[in-house]
């Protein structure tokens, strides 16, 4: 038993070395995966060797042949682990998903059109059909995602950005989320609402990659030894997720290059160039398959761009048109910032209006239904929709907007006939300019509103279409202004409004997402690169304007959702060089020393909730030896105060008592002591609370009080590490996770041991005075260190580069402070000063009362609760001088 | 005086904090820049305020107006520092440079053609003119660069890659190098040799950025306070250089997106996405201006692509053609690897053949001339050149190769007539296939050979053209095979060989440079993106093949030149996860302890030449407190042993002597002691060398021996930091830099002090036993630390991310080892196993004997020399137990 423990411990230590930034949840998850996979692996290896042996003995006809087959199979299985096979599979899978989703969406949209067309006799029925259909679909989508996996709501890019930074968001990469996202997205887009599929596809691709990785680990290959190689899977997973993001964009638009670049810009802070090929490889393969499927389905004759344009090549634009393109860029910049602002404003408005919020909380599907009703009513083609081409789906609008013909021929539509869908833009009473303006304005707020609906949806495509419409508007105006083109030489080159639409689309989507690579996406989408310079100029101008006004849509959502992400340093981040770490660091560092006692440990654990704590040589020398995870310390403490140890103590005491009893026979007074519990406890508390300032409303002994009183079905968000000592692991579980089976047993008193509450408190007090034994503790011997004079800029770089959570500030080996992500974020935001983003996650009130929530909020709750309870205990125990204030004095 | 020192010291300390990876040279350079700029700044500020004051008092008519002007001017000047203005200026400048260089090259090439055409009557004269012209130009280019700035030789991308990693290569970013590079490149390309301008343009753009930055610092703005803001300029310069690399490629090909991506792939390991916009902005502006210049020059009607193609848009290629594209990709992969190998082989061959090498060393312009003669003879159009379109320049070849018409119409050139330059491919006797094959084969080795010429030149463009020719060959073969296209349906879509040429160009250049972004460059160069999928597939396949066979051309050059760069981890780097830091670290760490004496310091300095040394608490505890730069320790040591202190000691002794003499008058024995120097010294050495094993051939006292005996004109490569103590700074200079003025004075004996060599040695021995005072030493309190179990993969990532030079390996605060770039490189190369790259830099023998060399080789020489001399001294002193062996035992 002891030997086993020892081995387990060594193993753990081996694993733990070199983990700098790993979070608790991630570790627990990996550990669980390791254990599970060990369970899976062992029999399979045994089985295989057994079958080989059997074959060796089998002297039948084709024994050799069979052996050969088995060997080949083994070889193939080992190959399965290669990156490129994984990437091909991922690309293939995503292409299929993308194509199927597109197909389903097309059918949904066709069904609506068919319904609408079939009821042409009765306008009211027509309206009912037109409106009911999307409301039902959106409501279903919202309800389905809500029930199956609320994590599937929204774009997914902000979450992927956070995950790629190294933060583990639980439940974001599970099969349930995958199903919810795919089906929810299909329904949401099938409703014809102004929503996009690009953001969700990034999430779906990441889900695919995570699931594929899990699936392939069943086959073995390099997936077989996750525990032996330690860091491998961690970094490999990040690499694969980055590639998956590229695949997501790539197969959504059949734009491999743009996909890779967009995903890099949107999800990464620092990009490892060695991962470049992964993204390109997978995205190209995916885009290829996606387009090949279209060819096989006879939609296309050969592989071409998704929204192919046919602008003239010889003279794509005149140099003198460039100012118009620049205007589009600048206006798009303002428009993009406005979109982000509007989107956030809507979320904020709903949050602030408490009556609305309360009402929506009760009927959580009402909001999506109402929004859908509003939007679809306004786009009803015989109604207001006729003035804004409401009949067209998003795709059709885009195709018509990118058309290479000019719509407005000097006011009168003389020779030009609107073919097919372009007809929608040509209203008999209203000018094409009015139609375009109405389209832009209405779609603008509709898109901003629609993207707040809690369904899987993106905002890229709607914004792209709005941008195209705006570009078209400018282009048509230019064409009307210069009917024969600007060029003054012999040949007449008329202005191509479609080119303006391309520029506008790239500029507005670039402004909203703060990316430059929308330019590349546009080239790949249209299959023409002739407008490269206007597009680049417009996109850069749009970015310049938008970035100076608002955060990107994804950063805005990150802030709204309060995801643990570090904001970027702004464009003009010169003043950041003047801020030093010493200006922002917390001098009041929580630390423990090598020779501290459990009471210090417990005080330190109460005082803050940093994930790791500094281990110093002594509080005099302040020399930093390393850092210890909070959970490790909690394990140590719970081991010291836990029931097993108490039971042991009781056993010892009982033995002593027995001995004593065997000498003097005397009846016990257990019943009486249990009865006076309340009084005695209160007495103690008043006695000791004279030292503390806060009143103690509810007095419970330390351990039972740690239990959360009222949560019935907590989601399995918090994973505790499998602690080296099995018994302490159990105790830890008791400390944090409410086990429904044991909850009933230990209600208010510890019925299963023989101590009174007072005795327990006393015993705990004694235990706390013992010195801590760090021997079995996993210590990270090289936590990241900065010096006081490190600039904010450098700190930001290092934090983003290494995905740090916190760093210690030292001066010649002596700890003088600590900087965590929070301080850094505060310091950056303090100067960047983006207002009005500190709101709650969209419709989070729905989730708080729901069955499952996000891990971050829960763990926060838990921490607060723990804190409160510890505080109560603290007021019971003797007040001690705060260690941290010590260190503060020293560091100053 | 003391107060001044104190202030200087504090200032220095303020500056030093937080410098982790800064190299000595960089620091010295910055320091020098700071001092210089401080000198510049102060008067200008004073002047400005004075002029304002004057104006305030001046009550003339337009005083207010003038004040306003001055204020506006000030405002504008402060704006000048903004990044975007810098980037615009950089883009503008580079566009102009690119255009002017192109223009000059075009004139040069036209002149050759004109000469060739004018001498049509006499073939011999024609040959002479054809051959002499490039030989003269190349020889001039080689000679010019050699004389002005040998750093301008070659591509420049490997050097930029190294510089962007944080290594300071001296003289690579000076005005001289700029001039040499621009003029050398123009001449080299004007000769018509198969050389490219892309690599050099990356270097030129970086030079431009560095010079522009320097130039703008004269105006003030944010450039004004480099010293106050510390790290700012360092990181800003790196950011700007990264943007400059993008501009270089962007303005060379008018390909902004491709330029940014290519420069990222080629120069970065980890790319900061926040720098993305800089590259895009500057490259777009640059490409725009570059193309606008062409429009203004009436070369073009409007802005279009550089090598515009006119492939059909509706059916660019058939799905069934994809295997042919894949074949191009795979073959290009092998071709690319072969090119890199061939290029390296040629360099190696010249190196190994000692007779050739010796001969070339004497006549250093002979090699370029010979190579040029060979190449231009073979391309002589009436000679062999007629079979390989030798008449065409590189640009013309490319234009014809990308032509959208098919050359081979079933053997007989029936209806098709070769228009213009395409004529060159249509030899009357020889098939077009033979011409293409000859072109490919000949150009292949010619390009590999030509790029070894020591002139500023790149290999991208020649490779690009060869790739296009190869693609064309495949395309023409396909067209001959399927004259009516592969498509079986109604319409006939003939095969477009030009599309194959595009694919081939991208694939081969991608294979040679190991980049995927050549695909984007190709789209931007041709202005058509219709072949995106074939291009992407071919480029990825080519990369896959080439990367598994050879390093990229730039990495190959880096290894040939032995630049301090960390090789990439290979594609299939799975085994890297199994190597731990403990397997590769040096356990025998050089360290100093807080309580060590100067002798330990000096022993440690002798034992290795790491740039920084670990400072431990004590050799028992081994707790790492920080690291100290070698130069700091040298300064401490030289302060202790230096002449000022000796003189002080002499003064003290003299005072004492005087006192003694004043009591007892007695004649001195100085002359005698000087005469017996040799004997006495020898006696000491034999006496003490009985403890040491090595014989001591030449005995000189410590300090004078430190001087380098024979170097007359050393380049100012080694910059010593301005030490806090002025006097120690001087001593340090004496220790390392041979000052021609003082050299004559102190020849073998210290003539200006009154000590004999023996006395000096004794005095030094005494001094060495004193304890070191680290008070005035700049200590980096947080050097980068790893733990034993950190994987090689993670170590590599951290080293590349942070640009580290070395990292300490600690275990709970205790130092157990050190890993430097060298060990890491060895560990990676040990498994990657690229053979035959450890050769000397191309024609480095020329440089060694020249007036100036690269800093790295010189500092190495110096270190070795210092080492030797110290060794001699060591053998004189008492042998002491080696400290490092101590640590080794402890760590095991």
What can you see in these coordinates?
- The structure is a homodimer of 892-residue chains.
- With 892 residues, chain A is mainly α.
- Chain A has 37 helices and eight strands.
- In chain A, the strands form two sheets. Chain A has a four-stranded mixed beta sheet. The first copy, chain A, has a three-stranded mixed beta sheet with strand order 6-7-8.
- The longest helix of chain A has 36 residues, at 83-118.
- The first copy, chain A, is elongated.
- Chains A and B meet through helix 10, helix 11, strand 1, helix 12 and helix 20 of A and helix 10, helix 11, strand 1, helix 12 and helix 20 of B.
- Strand 1 (270-272) of chain A pairs antiparallel with strand 1 (270-272) of chain B.
Strand content of chain A: under 5%
Which ranges of chain A are low-confidence, i.e. pLDDT below 50, for 5 or more consecutive residues?
1-29, 38-53, 221-231, 410-416, 668-752, 831-892
Biggest sheet of chain A, open or closed, and with what strands and sense?
Answer: 4 strands, mixed
Principal-axes geometry of chain A comes out as: elongated
Side by side, the strands of the main sheet of chain A go 2-3-4-5
Give the structural class of chain A: mainly alpha
pLDDT averaged residue by residue of chain A: 71
